[in-house]
Amino acid sequence: MAQEIAEGSTALLSVGVIARRSGVAVSTIHFYESKGLISSVRTEGNQRRYAPVLLRYIAIIKVAQRTGIPLEEIREALRRYPPGSKLTAGQWKTLASEWRVDLDQRIQKLTRLRDELDQCIGCGCLSLEECPLRNPGDALGAKGPGAQILNRP
Ligand code: FES
């Protein structure tokens, strides 16, 4: 798990409370936990309890998701910090700065695709030679599965 609750934590929260205070659904809390983004401890009655510091993690996860950062990347980024530690403003600034670079790169790619698509509007040729969005000879297919045209540098 990326974030475990530090030993000796007090005032642990139920899933309902942490969901309400973080503004996400209970199912989202469980989903984040299943993906290793947060973790809980179990009571003697086998109920999950969450450390209050996780509220900040959940806020960061939500912001990152809104910018399109994949959950796996979010998890890896959070793993840099001691499990269950309170993330500082400086740490958040570092994460946000990195994700801004990622967002800029995706914006550049999408802008280029939009500009190339502009050439297609009203054309309709879908020419292997002329259309910038075609994939001549499936050349990009050799680079692997998926949307290779989106992954161009
Ligand atoms: S359809 Fe003609 S340039 Fe894309």
From TrEMBL:
UniProt KW keywords: 2Fe-2S, DNA-binding, Iron, Iron-sulfur, Metal-binding, Transcription, Transcription regulation
Matching SMART domains: HTH_MERR
Residue ranges constituting the HTH merR-type domain according to the UniProt record: 12-80
Source organism superkingdom: Bacteria
PROSITE patterns linked: HTH_MERR_1, HTH_MERR_2
Matches recorded under InterPro entries: DNA-bd_dom_put_sf, MerR-type_HTH_dom, MerR_fam, Redox-sen_tscrpt-act_SoxR, Tscrpt_reg_MerR_DNA-bd
Keyword flag Transcription regulation: yes
Keyword flag Metal-binding: yes
UniProt protein name: Redox-sensitive transcriptional activator SoxR
Organism: Rubrivivax gelatinosus (Rhodocyclus gelatinosus)
Lineage, top ranks: Bacteria, Pseudomonadati, Pseudomonadota, Betaproteobacteria, Burkholderiales
